[in-house]
Amino acid sequence: MSINWYPGHMHKATGEIRKLLPTIDIIIEVLDARIPYSSQNPVIAQFAQGKPQIKLLNKSDLADPNITEQWIQHFNQVANTRAIAIHQQQFDRIGNIVDLCLKLAPPRSELRPSEALITGIPNVGKSTLINQWAGRSIAKTGNEPAVTKMQQRIRISDQLALIDTPGILWPKLENQNSAYRLAATGAIKDTAISYDDIAFFTIDFLQKNYPDALMQRYQLTELASNELGILEQIGRVRGCLIAGGLVDLNKVGKLLLTDLRSGKIGLISLETPAIAIKEAEQVALLLQQKADEKAAKKSERLAKHKKKS
Question: With CB atoms counted within 10 Å of each terminal CB, which end of the chain scores lower, N or C?
Answer without folding.
Answer: C
